[in-house]
User: Fold this.
Amino acid sequence: MNVLITGASAGFGKALAEKLVAKGHCVIGCARRLEKLEAMANELGELFLPVQMDVSDTASLPKIIADLPANFAQIDVLVNNAGLALGTEPAQNAKFDDWMQMVDTNVKGLMALTHAILPTMVQRNSGYIINVGSIAGSWPYYGGNVYGATKAFVKQFSLNLRADLLGTQVRVTNLEPGNVAGTEFSNVRYHGDDEKAAKVYDGFKTMSGEDIGDILLWLIESPTHINVNRLEVMPVAQTYNGLTIAKD
Assistant:
Protein backbone atom coordinates (compact mmCIF):
# COMPACT_ATOMS: atom_id res chain seq x y z
CA MET A 1 0.00 0.00 0.00
CA ASN A 2 0.98 3.66 -0.38
CA VAL A 3 1.24 5.60 2.88
CA LEU A 4 1.68 9.38 2.99
CA ILE A 5 3.27 10.60 6.21
CA THR A 6 3.67 14.25 7.14
CA GLY A 7 6.43 15.18 9.55
CA ALA A 8 8.37 12.20 8.18
CA SER A 9 11.89 13.55 8.71
CA ALA A 10 12.05 12.86 12.47
CA GLY A 11 10.30 11.30 15.45
CA PHE A 12 7.14 9.26 14.95
CA GLY A 13 7.05 9.88 11.21
CA LYS A 14 10.61 8.73 10.56
CA ALA A 15 10.19 5.63 12.72
CA LEU A 16 6.96 4.72 10.94
CA ALA A 17 8.46 5.25 7.48
CA GLU A 18 11.34 2.91 8.25
CA LYS A 19 9.01 0.23 9.61
CA LEU A 20 6.65 0.45 6.64
CA VAL A 21 9.42 0.17 4.05
CA ALA A 22 10.83 -2.82 5.93
CA LYS A 23 7.42 -4.48 5.51
CA GLY A 24 7.36 -3.74 1.76
CA HIS A 25 4.98 -0.78 1.79
CA CYS A 26 5.54 2.39 -0.27
CA VAL A 27 5.96 5.63 1.69
CA ILE A 28 5.52 9.21 0.58
CA GLY A 29 7.61 11.00 3.19
CA CYS A 30 6.68 14.65 3.54
CA ALA A 31 8.44 17.34 5.58
CA ARG A 32 9.89 20.82 5.28
CA ARG A 33 13.53 19.64 5.51
CA LEU A 34 14.20 18.07 2.13
CA GLU A 35 17.82 17.21 2.97
CA LYS A 36 16.69 14.91 5.78
CA LEU A 37 14.14 13.25 3.53
CA GLU A 38 16.75 12.71 0.82
CA ALA A 39 19.07 11.09 3.35
CA MET A 40 16.22 8.75 4.28
CA ALA A 41 15.60 7.98 0.60
CA ASN A 42 19.26 7.02 0.17
CA GLU A 43 18.89 4.59 3.05
CA LEU A 44 15.39 3.24 2.35
CA GLY A 45 15.51 2.98 -1.43
CA GLU A 46 12.87 3.23 -4.13
CA LEU A 47 9.95 2.44 -1.81
CA PHE A 48 10.46 5.85 -0.17
CA LEU A 49 9.52 9.03 -2.06
CA PRO A 50 10.81 12.26 -0.46
CA VAL A 51 8.45 15.22 -0.90
CA GLN A 52 9.15 18.68 0.45
CA MET A 53 5.99 19.96 2.10
CA ASP A 54 5.10 22.65 4.60
CA VAL A 55 1.57 21.78 5.70
CA SER A 56 1.04 25.33 7.00
CA ASP A 57 1.30 26.51 3.36
CA THR A 58 -2.18 25.19 2.70
CA ALA A 59 -2.50 26.64 -0.80
CA SER A 60 0.41 24.48 -2.02
CA LEU A 61 -0.95 21.13 -0.83
CA PRO A 62 -3.46 20.23 -3.61
CA LYS A 63 -0.80 20.71 -6.31
CA ILE A 64 1.75 18.64 -4.40
CA ILE A 65 -0.76 15.79 -4.20
CA ALA A 66 -1.76 16.16 -7.86
CA ASP A 67 1.90 16.07 -8.97
CA LEU A 68 2.81 12.79 -7.26
CA PRO A 69 4.26 10.22 -9.71
CA ALA A 70 1.84 7.59 -10.99
CA ASN A 71 3.11 4.75 -8.81
CA PHE A 72 2.59 6.87 -5.67
CA ALA A 73 -0.56 8.72 -6.79
CA GLN A 74 -3.04 6.47 -4.99
CA ILE A 75 -2.82 7.25 -1.29
CA ASP A 76 -4.15 4.34 0.72
CA VAL A 77 -3.24 5.74 4.14
CA LEU A 78 -2.77 9.36 5.21
CA VAL A 79 -0.89 9.87 8.48
CA ASN A 80 -1.36 13.48 9.58
CA ASN A 81 1.67 13.52 11.86
CA ALA A 82 3.12 17.01 11.30
CA GLY A 83 2.52 19.21 14.31
CA LEU A 84 4.25 21.18 17.00
CA ALA A 85 3.96 22.82 20.40
CA LEU A 86 5.59 26.18 21.08
CA GLY A 87 6.20 27.43 24.59
CA THR A 88 4.88 26.48 28.02
CA GLU A 89 4.10 29.96 29.28
CA PRO A 90 0.66 30.69 30.73
CA ALA A 91 -1.71 32.18 28.19
CA GLN A 92 -1.27 35.74 29.44
CA ASN A 93 2.47 35.55 28.74
CA ALA A 94 2.40 33.50 25.53
CA LYS A 95 3.56 34.84 22.17
CA PHE A 96 0.68 35.31 19.77
CA ASP A 97 2.87 34.31 16.83
CA ASP A 98 3.48 30.96 18.55
CA TRP A 99 -0.26 30.48 18.94
CA MET A 100 -0.86 31.20 15.27
CA GLN A 101 1.94 28.89 14.11
CA MET A 102 0.43 26.03 16.11
CA VAL A 103 -3.01 26.69 14.62
CA ASP A 104 -1.59 26.98 11.09
CA THR A 105 0.23 23.65 11.37
CA ASN A 106 -1.82 21.50 13.75
CA VAL A 107 -5.26 22.59 12.56
CA LYS A 108 -5.21 24.29 9.16
CA GLY A 109 -2.51 22.08 7.68
CA LEU A 110 -4.21 18.88 8.83
CA MET A 111 -7.55 20.10 7.49
CA ALA A 112 -6.14 21.13 4.10
CA LEU A 113 -4.29 17.88 3.45
CA THR A 114 -7.27 15.80 4.54
CA HIS A 115 -9.51 17.84 2.23
CA ALA A 116 -7.11 17.24 -0.68
CA ILE A 117 -6.96 13.45 -0.21
CA LEU A 118 -10.24 12.28 1.35
CA PRO A 119 -12.52 12.60 -1.74
CA THR A 120 -10.49 10.06 -3.74
CA MET A 121 -10.60 7.63 -0.81
CA VAL A 122 -14.37 7.93 -0.74
CA GLN A 123 -14.56 7.43 -4.51
CA ARG A 124 -12.54 4.22 -4.19
CA ASN A 125 -14.47 3.28 -1.05
CA SER A 126 -11.16 2.45 0.58
CA GLY A 127 -8.63 4.31 2.69
CA TYR A 128 -7.45 5.22 6.15
CA ILE A 129 -6.76 8.56 7.81
CA ILE A 130 -4.71 8.51 11.00
CA ASN A 131 -4.46 11.80 12.84
CA VAL A 132 -1.74 12.11 15.45
CA GLY A 133 -3.33 13.98 18.31
CA SER A 134 -2.25 14.13 21.93
CA ILE A 135 -3.48 13.52 25.45
CA ALA A 136 -3.34 17.34 25.59
CA GLY A 137 -6.53 17.30 23.53
CA SER A 138 -8.38 15.74 26.46
CA TRP A 139 -6.45 16.70 29.59
CA PRO A 140 -5.54 20.36 30.26
CA TYR A 141 -2.26 21.26 31.92
CA TYR A 142 -0.34 24.38 32.85
CA GLY A 143 1.07 26.06 29.74
CA GLY A 144 -0.88 23.82 27.34
CA ASN A 145 -3.34 26.56 26.29
CA VAL A 146 -3.42 26.74 22.46
CA TYR A 147 -1.45 23.52 21.87
CA GLY A 148 -4.06 21.57 23.83
CA ALA A 149 -6.83 23.41 22.01
CA THR A 150 -5.40 22.41 18.61
CA LYS A 151 -5.26 18.77 19.67
CA ALA A 152 -8.82 18.96 20.99
CA PHE A 153 -9.76 20.10 17.48
CA VAL A 154 -7.93 17.12 15.98
CA LYS A 155 -9.83 14.75 18.27
CA GLN A 156 -13.24 16.20 17.46
CA PHE A 157 -12.47 16.54 13.75
CA SER A 158 -11.50 12.85 13.66
CA LEU A 159 -14.74 11.82 15.35
CA ASN A 160 -16.81 13.96 13.00
CA LEU A 161 -15.02 12.49 10.00
CA ARG A 162 -16.09 9.07 11.27
CA ALA A 163 -19.68 10.30 11.42
CA ASP A 164 -19.54 11.71 7.89
CA LEU A 165 -17.97 8.54 6.48
CA LEU A 166 -20.76 6.27 7.65
CA GLY A 167 -21.56 3.83 4.85
CA THR A 168 -18.06 3.94 3.36
CA GLN A 169 -15.07 1.70 4.04
CA VAL A 170 -12.80 4.66 4.86
CA ARG A 171 -11.39 4.43 8.37
CA VAL A 172 -10.34 7.24 10.74
CA THR A 173 -8.29 7.04 13.94
CA ASN A 174 -7.08 9.70 16.36
CA LEU A 175 -3.89 8.48 18.06
CA GLU A 176 -3.32 10.37 21.32
CA PRO A 177 0.16 9.85 22.79
CA GLY A 178 1.35 11.09 26.14
CA ASN A 179 4.98 11.69 27.07
CA VAL A 180 7.43 10.53 24.38
CA ALA A 181 11.21 10.99 24.35
CA GLY A 182 13.60 10.66 21.44
CA THR A 183 11.81 13.08 19.14
CA GLU A 184 12.31 16.80 18.47
CA PHE A 185 9.01 17.74 20.13
CA SER A 186 10.37 19.36 23.30
CA ASN A 187 13.37 20.87 21.52
CA VAL A 188 10.93 22.71 19.25
CA ARG A 189 8.65 23.58 22.16
CA TYR A 190 11.52 25.23 24.04
CA HIS A 191 12.73 27.04 20.92
CA GLY A 192 15.95 25.04 20.58
CA ASP A 193 16.93 24.90 24.27
CA ASP A 194 18.13 21.29 24.20
CA GLU A 195 19.14 21.22 27.87
CA LYS A 196 15.70 22.35 29.00
CA ALA A 197 14.05 19.89 26.62
CA ALA A 198 16.09 16.96 27.96
CA LYS A 199 14.95 17.65 31.52
CA VAL A 200 11.34 16.88 30.51
CA TYR A 201 12.28 13.18 30.40
CA ASP A 202 14.52 12.97 33.47
CA GLY A 203 13.85 10.41 36.17
CA PHE A 204 11.35 8.04 34.59
CA LYS A 205 10.96 5.57 31.74
CA THR A 206 8.89 7.12 28.99
CA MET A 207 7.81 6.04 25.52
CA SER A 208 9.95 6.46 22.42
CA GLY A 209 9.32 7.43 18.82
CA GLU A 210 9.90 3.76 17.98
CA ASP A 211 7.07 2.78 20.35
CA ILE A 212 4.65 5.14 18.62
CA GLY A 213 5.90 3.96 15.22
CA ASP A 214 5.04 0.39 16.25
CA ILE A 215 1.54 1.46 17.28
CA LEU A 216 1.00 3.32 14.02
CA LEU A 217 2.17 0.29 12.04
CA TRP A 218 -0.22 -1.93 13.99
CA LEU A 219 -3.10 0.42 13.18
CA ILE A 220 -2.23 0.52 9.48
CA GLU A 221 -1.99 -3.27 9.23
CA SER A 222 -5.10 -3.95 11.33
CA PRO A 223 -8.09 -5.67 9.63
CA THR A 224 -9.95 -3.29 7.33
CA HIS A 225 -13.33 -4.06 8.91
CA ILE A 226 -12.16 -2.71 12.28
CA ASN A 227 -11.99 0.99 13.12
CA VAL A 228 -10.09 2.22 16.17
CA ASN A 229 -11.82 5.52 16.81
CA ARG A 230 -9.42 6.85 19.45
CA LEU A 231 -6.29 5.37 20.97
CA GLU A 232 -4.81 7.11 24.00
CA VAL A 233 -1.39 5.84 25.15
CA MET A 234 0.89 6.92 28.00
CA PRO A 235 4.01 5.52 29.64
CA VAL A 236 3.20 3.63 32.83
CA ALA A 237 4.96 6.39 34.78
CA GLN A 238 2.45 8.99 33.55
CA THR A 239 -1.18 9.27 34.55
CA TYR A 240 -3.94 11.81 35.10
CA ASN A 241 -3.11 14.77 37.35
CA GLY A 242 -5.34 15.59 40.26
CA LEU A 243 -7.30 18.82 40.21
CA THR A 244 -5.07 21.55 41.60
CA ILE A 245 -5.96 24.28 44.09
CA ALA A 246 -4.24 27.64 44.57
CA LYS A 247 -4.23 28.20 48.33
CA ASP A 248 -4.05 31.60 50.02
